[in-house]
Structures are given as structure tokens and as C-alpha cells.
# Entry
Amino acid sequence: MNVFRLAGDVSHLVAIIILLLKIWRSRSCAGISGKSQLLFALVFTTRYLDLFTVYISAYNTIMKVVFLALSYATVYLIYMRFRNTYDSENDSFRVEFLLVPVIGLSFLEHYAFTPMEVLWTFSIFLEAVAIMPQLFMITKTGEAESITTHYLFFLGLYRALYIANWVWRYHTEGFFDQIAVVSGVVQTIFYCDFFYLYVTKVVQGRSKMSLP
Amino acid sequence: QEDGAVKDEL
# Structure
């Protein structure tokens, strides 16, 4: 464990909590892409199956349980509890356009052709594109509430910190996980455009980030 | 290439 990865995991946790609290306190999921949250719950489900097979550390186990619980709670709030505030019309990204390539790629590129490895690879590739429905929804509505942008900022920060973690691990312990790194870099690139908007718009203290 | 190594990252 290094400070970059710890900060990344904390930033990821903060993002998830920001979104969950926003939905719970405003009792509304307007402007939130339920599809992205479903994809994130699928990412955690397919990646954390090793909860039942290997024990790595208390931190690892606790964080996996927390991420699974919070992501399912978020999906529950969107599709059950506050479903009448769910903006399905604007949440119109065709997730099959993400799932089919990701499933195909995880069958082509993996470390071992075993269920656990293929599912893990699937979760890595899926996480890279899971935010697309949310970013698409923001471009469609043309704006994002500032809390939603904070959510995206911390998600992007988590990915940027993971890249720093991989650089650090490569130089200190020669660690290099090709699938995770390639997919992680692609995922981080998707946030770059948003980061620019976030810094130029939201930091100016405007309540909503409206896209140009 | 970390094939089969313990996946300790979240």
C-alpha cells in the first residue's frame, strides 16, 4: 500500500458517499445516470468475487464490502426508493454498446481463461467506460448540478491517483499490471475533458456547470 | 505482466 493508492481509494469512497448523500438528502436522483450506477454495481460485483476465495487484508475486505454496499444502496435509491424522480428520458445511453465490446474484449484479453480472471478483466474494462452514460446525460441536459460535478471530480481524482500508484509501484517494486494500467489510463482520459470544464466553470463558484 | 499475481488493488 502506498499513499497514492490510499488517497485514491479514499477519493473513490468520497465520490460514492457524495452521490449517495445527495440523492438521499434531496430525495431525488434528477440528473443522475442510473445506468452508470448499475454498471458500477456490476463492476464491483464481478471484481470482488474474490471476497469469498482469498483474504488479502482487513482493509481490502472492508473496503470491498463498503463499496458493494454503497453502490447497491445507490442503485436501490435510484430505481426503487426515488424512482419517480429518475430521468429515464435523458438517461438514454445504449449500455449494450458498452457491454458487448467489454465482454468480447475480456474473452480476448485476459491473464488466464478462468471464470475469476475473465470476470475480473471484464470488471476492469467495464469500469473504464461505466461513467459514459453519466457524461452523456450531462451533455444531453447541457448542465450538471455542482454536487454531481464534485462526484465526477473525486471519481476522476481516484483514477489519477491510481496512475500515480502504478508509477510508484513500478519504480519501487517492479509491479506492472498491464490490463489494469491500460484500462485505467483510458478511463482517466475520459475525465480529462470534464476536469477542464470543472476547473473553468465550477471553481468560479457557479452553482451549475453548463456545457458550452 | 501480472498474470495470476494476487490482486491486492481495489
Summary: Chain B is about 0% helix and 0% strand. Residues 2 and 8 of chain B are 11 Å apart (CA to CA). The mean pLDDT of chain B is 72. The two ends of chain B are 18 Å apart (CA to CA).
